[in-house]
């Protein structure tokens, strides 16, 4: 039971990071119908910027929380500028193009960001200076660190705030209007270009936070780390119903838990035939099953109506 | 059919080169022999390693070792088959690049070297070895540890360093005999290196009576090991062995301590790096890893060699200079025993080498691997790797063969 509880906690922490990244995919998809493959790499840039800033300030004697806030601000600034630039330069000219064109552009942008990062930071794994020492917390036989707890709570907080923001604020309403029909929203006086740019700002800022969490949690960064993270987060978004913000959260947490449980028990279930390295297979199998049984994802409704 | 023609061609080529070598040498020798009998003949020895690029410091280290050996030998005077011989160094830069390595190998062969010390990287040594083999030029690598290097069936390939398949069994014996581990969890990163190391370790540990309580796999890109580690925690091992490299080992050790796993942790040379300590942070303390070779201070001829090297080059030995030095001495020793500087004549003698060098006793098995190659276990102490114990794998050749068969 302890082990199961521990696996569940591992999964929830991992899942909350997936969920944060998935938000970026799902918001852009909801509004543009575009899968922004570069989002994972924007998260990577956020992670590496945060790492660099923490590395520079680690010896300065500032309290760790201040360093982290400065790192977050720097990461958010860089991520938002990249996100907005990519939207303006790469996606906006293609907004009326056939759907394949922006998709391929997104993959191109992703590769461009990856290798630009490789130029800036090199291809080595970069380690995070240990500025905080997490203390241990025990919950019914399972062990976790306060850092894990903060990551989970902060992720949940940010997601809740985002839900409220989209439901209740003026720009949130404009986002939902643009999502339903950009042309009509435009006729009703919504500046859709501004709304779309704002969506990228929001997604990139949340991505920067996710990047900071990743380097804090794992203690290392690498120019290629955005690829797998992005793929998993995209899967989470699809699992929950892409385009749906609450769905991305659910999908992220679910994917994290499935992965964690699968790699913990898959060997026992299959009598040692499949090892824990098959956890991704298992996660994607669940995705396939969900898509077969409920093509729009767990919480998606509108996806099939569009296009 | 095909194979036969290749071998035939190789033999023919080797023969042709040998003949050509004889033809050139003899008239030259006669000319000099006639007027002045004591005049020495020049024998060229090649050195191939990266002299530029990020690995240059290690490559230059090897070349310096070779140079030192040649100067020492010349100073002592080399007499082969009753003829005084002067050794000459031909150093080439392979840039740690497999393609460049083959070009360099051809260049060395064309400049009529009788033997080559090199290359540094397994990725360079393996493609180059075909060219040396075709030309019949013996090659001793001071540092390449990939098992494949000596498994190609070439008679000209040797190495003076332990290979990867010897590390796994050594780690296994160390774990069971020295650490007295009885319940072991094994993790690998699903690469040829990591899985090979972990498999060989598992086999040896099992034979020694230890119980493998979990066998887990991750990938060489993953950074999240919490769920495998949680599972392992439930099995209560007293030792965790990881076959893989530092980007995984670092976070893994960190996550182990976060999960409160008290088991010891051991791995191969892929994680015996300063970067591992950076990535793992304080959790690195007490982690052990193996590395082929003796620590340079502990080599039988180490202290004297380090002093001599420092005096000559005004810098410290990086890593493989002693191996480069001994490789040259092995060549000279073989030439003396064969009484000839002709590769075709002294090549069979290399296999029979029994030489006491800087790195200790040098002898080769039938594949050209170093017999009883020492492997050192290091431990992280005070944020630094420190040598803990040196093990000589007695049963290395046989278990190495089994390990390679599995791949």
Give structural notes.
Chain A is mainly alpha-helical. Chain A has one domain. Chain A contains eleven helices and four strands, in the order ααααβββααααβααα. A two-stranded antiparallel sheet of chain A has the order 1-4. Chain A has a two-stranded antiparallel ribbon with strand order 2-3. The C terminus of chain A is likely disordered. Chain B folds into two domains: 226 residues, Rossmann fold, CATH 3.40.50.2300; 161 residues, Response regulator (Rossmann fold, 3-Layer(aba) Sandwich), CATH 3.40.50.2300. In chain B, α3 runs parallel beside α4 and α5 runs parallel beside α6. Chain B is elongated. The chains are: A mainly alpha (307), B alpha/beta (407).
Could you provide a short overview of the structure?
The complex is a heterodimer of chains A (307) and B (407). Helices cover 73% and strands 4% of the residues of chain A.
CATH class of the largest domain in chain B, anyone? Alpha Beta
Please describe the biggest sheet of chain A, giving its number of strands, its sense, and whether it closes into a barrel.
Answer: 2 strands, antiparallel
What is the helical fraction of chain A, as a range of percent? over 70%
User: Helical region count of chain B?
Assistant: 13
- Strand line-up across the major sheet of chain B: 8-7-9-10-11-14-15
List the helices and strands and how they pair.
The complex is a heterodimer of chains A (307) and B (407).
Chain A: H1 2-32, H2 39-57, H3 64-91, H4 100-121, E1 126-127, E2 136-139, E3 142-145, H5 146-168, H6 170-180, H7 182-187, H8 192-218, E4 220-221, H9 225-240, H10 245-269, H11 279-293
Antiparallel strand pairs in A: 1-4, 2-3
Chain B: H1 2-33, E1 41-49, H2 56-76, E2 78-80, E3 83-93, H3 98-110, E4 115-118, H4 122-135, E5 139-141, E6 157-159, H5 164-178, E7 183-188, H6 192-207, E8 211-217, H7 226-235, E9 239-243, H8 246-258, E10 264-267, H9 274-280, E11 288-292, H10 302-313, H11 321-338, H12 343-351, E12 355-357, E13 360-362, E14 375-381, E15 384-391, H13 396-406
Parallel strand pairs in B: 1-3, 1-4, 4-5, 5-6, 7-8, 7-9, 9-10, 10-11
Antiparallel strand pairs in B: 2-3, 11-14, 12-13, 14-15
């Amino acid at each position: 039971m302890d082990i199961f509880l521990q696996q569940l906690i591992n999964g929830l922490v991992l899942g909350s990071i997936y969920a944060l990244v998935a938000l970026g995919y799902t918001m852009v998809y909801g509004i543009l119908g575009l899968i922004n493959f570069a989002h994972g790499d924007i998260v990577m840039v956020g992670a590496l910027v945060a790492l660099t800033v923490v590395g520079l300030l680690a010896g300065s004697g500032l309290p760790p929380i201040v360093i982290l806030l400065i790192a977050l601000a720097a990461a958010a600034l860089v991520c938002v500028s990249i996100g907005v630039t990519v939207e303006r330069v790469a996606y906006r000219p293609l907004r009326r193009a056939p759907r394949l064109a922006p998709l391929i552009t997104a993959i191109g942008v992703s590769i461009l960001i990856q290798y630009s990062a490789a130029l800036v930071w090199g291809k080595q794994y970069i380690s995070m200076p240990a500025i905080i020492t997490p203390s241990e917390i025990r919950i019914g036989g399972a062990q976790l660190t306060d850092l894990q707890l903060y990551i989970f709570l902060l992720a949940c907080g940010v997601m809740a705030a985002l839900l409220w923001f989209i439901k209740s604020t003026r720009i949130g309403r404009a986002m939902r209007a643009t999502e339903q029909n950009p042309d009509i929203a435009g006729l009703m006086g919504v500046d859709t270009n501004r709304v779309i740019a704002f969506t990228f700002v929001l997604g990139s800022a949340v991505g920067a936070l996710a990047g900071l969490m990743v380097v804090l949690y794992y203690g290392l960064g690498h120019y290629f780390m955005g690829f797998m993270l992005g793929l998993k987060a995209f899967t989470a978004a699809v699992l929950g119903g892409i385009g749906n913000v609450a769905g991305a959260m659910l999908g992220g947490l679910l994917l994290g838990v499935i992965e964690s449980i699968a790699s913990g028990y898959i060997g026992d279930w299959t009598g040692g035939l499949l090892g824990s390295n098959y956890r991704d297979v298992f996660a994607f199998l669940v995705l396939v099953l969900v898509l077969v049984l409920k093509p729009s994802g767990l919480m998606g409704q509108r996806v099939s109506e569009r296009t | 059919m095909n194979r036969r023609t290749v071998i035939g061609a190789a033999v023919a080529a080797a023969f042709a080169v040998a003949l050509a070598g004889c033809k050139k040498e003899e008239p030259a020798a006669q000319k000099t022999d006639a007027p002045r009998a004591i005049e020495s003949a020049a024998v060229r020895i090649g050195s191939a390693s990266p002299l530029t690029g990020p690995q240059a410091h290690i490559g230059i280290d090897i070349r310096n070792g070779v140079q030192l050996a040649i100067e020492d030998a010349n100073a002592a005077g080399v007499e082969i088959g009753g003829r005084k011989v002067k050794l000459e160094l031909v150093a080439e830069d392979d840039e740690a690049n497999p393609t460049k390595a083959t070009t360099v190998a051809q260049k060395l062969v064309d400049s009529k070297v009788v033997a080559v010390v090199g290359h540094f990287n397994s990725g360079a040594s393996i493609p180059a070895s075909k060219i040396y083999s075709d030309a019949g030029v013996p090659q001793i690598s001071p540092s390449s540890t990939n098992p494949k290097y000596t498994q190609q069936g070439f008679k000209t390939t040797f190495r003076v360093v332990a290979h990867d398949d010897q590390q796994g069994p050594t780690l296994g014996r160390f774990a069971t005999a020295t650490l007295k581990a009885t319940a072991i969890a094994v993790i690998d990163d699903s690469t040829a290196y990591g899985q090979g190391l972990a498999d060989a370790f598992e086999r040896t540990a099992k034979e020694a009576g230890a119980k493998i309580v979990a066998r887990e796999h991750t990938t060489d890109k993953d950074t999240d090991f919490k769920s495998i580690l949680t599972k392992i925690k439930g099995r209560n091992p007293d030792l965790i062995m990881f076959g893989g490299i530092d980007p995984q080992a670092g976070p893994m050790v960190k996550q182990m301590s976060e999960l409160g796993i008290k088991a010891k942790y051991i791995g191969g040379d892929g994680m015996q790096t300063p970067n591992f300590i950076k990535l793992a942070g304080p959790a690195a303390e007490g982690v052990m890893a193996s590395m082929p070779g003796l620590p340079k201070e502990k080599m039988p001829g180490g202290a004297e060699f380090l002093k001599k090297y420092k005096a000559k080059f005004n810098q410290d030995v990086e890593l493989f200079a002693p191996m480069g030095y001994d490789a040259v001495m092995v060549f000279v020793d073989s030439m003396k025993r064969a009484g000839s500087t002709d590769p075709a004549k002294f090549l069979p003698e290399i296999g029979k080498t029994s030489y006491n060098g800087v790195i200790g006793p040098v002898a080769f098995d039938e594949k050209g691997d170093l017999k009883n190659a020492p492997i050192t276990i290091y431990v992280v102490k005070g944020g630094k790797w420190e040598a803990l114990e040196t093990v000589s794998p007695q049963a290395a050749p046989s278990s190495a063969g089994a390990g390679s068969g599995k791949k």
